[in-house]
Amino acid sequence: MRFEPRRAPLRGGRHCIIRKITREDAADQLRLERAIVRARQGIVKHEDELPADAAAYAAQRDRAGLTATDGSALCVGAEVEGVGLAGEATLLRLRPRMVRHVGILGLGVHPEAQGLGVGRALLERLLEWARAHRDADGGRVRRVELYVRADNARAIALYRS
């Protein structure tokens, strides 16, 4: 299933473009993750745990399976005017056949874009893809799991809504 870019409304009359992330976005992804980690709100990483550069970041994502093109993973980003890559969401399906119907969700929004609706736009688009996507053998995502820190009130509110 193709993933077409789509415009999504945000608060304050703004909008974002939700699009598939590619390997060429590694530098922007690393900048985004650094900004999120530096904000120290609801995140489990420290800055010294991040890759040193875009090439190392891309290689790390390759090893994690996040750049797979076989339907086992999808990574989407939200581009916001004036911010650039303002958020990213990933869905990584488990590999063993017995649990291949499970997808692990990851979501991060740039601190300057939090509260605009970027996280909601990413989540809705990613879940829409998960509901519609079918593997060549008919398999699909039936359950989405996520991990969130108990002190990340914004994320918890989004996931509960």
UniProtKB/TrEMBL annotation:
Coiled coil: none annotated. It comes from the Bacteria. Residues 16-161 form the N-acetyltransferase domain. Pfam families: Acetyltransf_1 (PF00583). CDD domains: NAT_SF. GO terms for molecular function: protein-N-terminal-alanine acetyltransferase activity. This is N-acetyltransferase domain-containing protein.
